[in-house]
Specification:
GMP Synthetase, Chain A, domain 3, five-stranded parallel sheet, four-stranded mixed sheet, lipid metabolism, AMP-binding_CS, ANL_N_sf, Acyl-CoA synthetase
């Protein structure tokens, strides 16, 4: 095999694993576990034999249900080598949703951690085998028993060479915000086109280091952690708990990295809290000065204007004295580029990291497009856009501004759903994305919002809730989530939820005895901080977009819960139904104790 482009993931993996067998392919923070490429390849071979021994054949479906861990990789890749469709299940799914996903996928074998065995059984899906990691569970197969099932004469080479580009490599189940999750069928051809496309745009190299910390059921982690590794030979550090990503970054100092906007916002808040809480007055003054210089530089970058020589010179001095150390403390001092995706990121957050000297490029894509459809290298990026389409992809806009795309990234279809597939992809192969975008003369895309989520107020004005929410959140680390309300209403209001980690830091810094959501939601100082933040955000919005009233809810919304997806997208339908009473309270004639107005907002006339 040569280093030319390959047609299937097994072909690519076999070449990659042979390049440097002694190099580390997989690890955990602190090198608690490590697996070289040679060990990885040998593990794949014996696990593939074991899976074949229990009856897994080409076209069968194998599901994995586990945390981000080293053992996941050889198991997943072994299933690929048999021509099976292997995919991950969200660990938070209740039995009813688990039953739908496993049934729709036609799963025969599930490989899982012990804590999920009972839930799988409660789902009452006719599985042939449950393979259990870590410990022996009655009625399941252990990994050792799986390996022992392999036949001595199993022809591993013939098995993986029989895999075809058009075979379905994986299923990605959508979040199911408007019904049961749909299984996106993604082929080997889709994935290979995707990996080679982003490699060309971003310059990914063998041995580049990255973390895996997002759920492997999400296409973002599958692409950046699994598929990029198989094809290009990156080294992956598995982080079992997303809350541990900050120390994991400091341990690894990755060369490439990506996260959803909320993670970037949390990192930004952590830096701001660190600076504000610095006890040494001289050091604090130096850090505040450096951040102010970074902000001045990023203002020009956000505006797409050249940075003046005097600002550039002052930034270089700030970088040498302070900013370089901040990047090292974060663990992002070696990163050549980083990505943000899955949802719009506030421009101020992008500008903050650009000012620090951390190049973040915003990407756009979706599960139906194998993950990333538009991206630009940071040297070519325009802050506030999601880059340009990967070469080979085509775009057009419908009359209402919805983006439609066509090309090799478009999914094969939704599993078992011919009608829904036909509704999404027309006869000419154009996929309707559901996103309203603008496209400039140079082909850079800017996402406005989801078509179905645009607000039309009582006066008929169209608005993007995502734009409003990102503008408010940009300078407010205390805010974890905002749900803008305004459909058919005379003015906009919002439900605001505090960020659990930022709230704990705030309570500690302000000597508040109780950092619970219920206590902080009624604390006068917290209310004042949020009122000020909303007022500051309103100053950057048009009058019709501004938030006139808001309510701080006495709860934290956890990723993967009812209100927020694991990638921090707002489940607006759920929020609208669950908090209907709270929403109505925002439009009563008089203010209640739990309803606030922005700090500088004029009093509203009774409606």
């Amino acid at each position: 095999m040569s280093a030319s482009r390959f047609d299937t993931l097994p072909e690519a993996f076999q070449y990659t694993a042979a390049r440097a067998p002694e190099a580390v392919a997989l690890r955990t923070p602190g090198d608690g576990q490590m697996l070289t490429w040679g060990e990885y390849a040998r593990r794949v071979r014996v696990l593939a034999a074991g899976l074949a021994g229990i009856g897994v054949r080409p076209g069968d479906t194998v599901a994995l249900m586990m945390s981000n861990r080293l053992e996941f990789y050889p198991l997943e890749v072994a299933a690929q080598h048999l021509g099976a469709t292997s995919f991950s299940v969200y660990n938070t799914l209740p039995p009813a949703q688990l039953a739908h996903v496993l049934g729709n996928a036609g799963v025969r074998v599930v490989i899982c951690e012990p804590q999920y065995v009972d839930r799988l059984r409660d789902a009452e899906v006719g599985l042939e085998h449950i393979v259990c990691l870590d410990q022996v569970v009655e009625g399941t197969l252990s990994i050792d028993e799986l390996i022992a099932s392999g036949a001595a004469g199993f022809d591993f080479e013939a098995a993986w060479r029989a895999v075809r580009a058009e075979d379905v490599a994986t299923l990605i189940y959508t979040s199911g915000t408007t019904g049961n999750p749909k299984g996106v069928e993604t082929t080997h051809a889709n994935i290979l086109f995707q990996v080679y496309g982003i490699a060309e745009a971003l310059g990914i190299e063998f041995g580049d280091t990255i973390t895996s910390f997002m759920p492997s059921a999400h296409i973002a982690d599958r692409l950046t952690g699994l598929y990029v590794q198989e094809v290009l030979g990156t080294q992956v550090t598995c982080v079992s708990d997303p809350k541990l990503i900050a120390p994991a970054l400091a341990d690894l100092h990755p060369t490439i990295w990506g996260a959803v906007p909320r993670v970037w916002e949390k990192l930004k808040a952590a830096i701001e809290f660190k600076v504000a809480g610095e006890p040494d007055e001289q050091r604090r003054a130096a850090m505040e000065w450096a951040l102010s210089v970074a902000q001045r530089r990023s203002a020009f970058q956000l505006a797409g204007e050249p940075v003046p020589d005097d600002v550039a010179a002052e930034w270089a001095r700030a970088d040498e004295l302070v900013l370089r150390g901040l990047r090292a403390a974060l663990g992002l001092d070696r990163v050549r580029w980083a990505m943000s995706g899955a949802a719009p990121i506030p421009p101020g957050t992008l500008g903050f990291f650009a000012g620090l000297g951390i190049p973040v490029t915003e990407i756009w894509g979706m599960s139906e497009l194998s993950c990333i459809c538009s991206v630009s290298h940071p040297r070519d990026a325009r802050l506030g856009t999601v880059g340009r389409l990967l070469p080979g992809m085509q775009a057009r806009q419908s009359a209402d501004g919805e983006l439609q795309v066509r090309g090799p990234l478009v999914m094969k279809g939704y599993r078992g759903l011919e009608q829904q597939t036909a509704e999404a992809i027309d006869a000419e192969g154009w996929l309707s994305t559901g996103d309203i975008v603008s496209i400039d003369a140079d082909g850079y895309l800017a996402v406005v919002d989801r078509k179905k989520e645009l607000i039309i107020n009582a006066a008929g004005k169209n608005m993007s809730p995502a734009v409003i929410e990102n503008t408010i959140k940009a300078g407010a680390p205390l805010i974890g989530a905002i749900a803008t309300i305004g459909e058919g209403r005379p003015y906009n209001t919002a439900l605001i939820v505090l960020d659990a980690e930022a709230a704990e830091s705030y309570a500690r810094q302000h000597d508040l005895p109780d950092a619970s959501a219920a206590a902080l939601a009624t604390d006068p100082s917290v209310a004042h901080a949020i009122r000020t933040a909303v007022a500051a955000g309103n100053d950057r919005l048009s009058r019709v977009e501004q938030i006139k009233r808001f309510r701080i809810l006495p709860v934290f919304w956890e990723a993967g819960g009812e209100e927020i997806t694991l990638t921090m997208k707002l489940e607006r339908r759920v929020v609208t139904e669950k908090y209907a009473t709270d929403m109505e309270a925002l439009y009563t004639a008089t203010l209640s104790p739990n309803v606030h107005e922005p700090a500088a907002a004029p009093a509203l006339a009774p409606s």
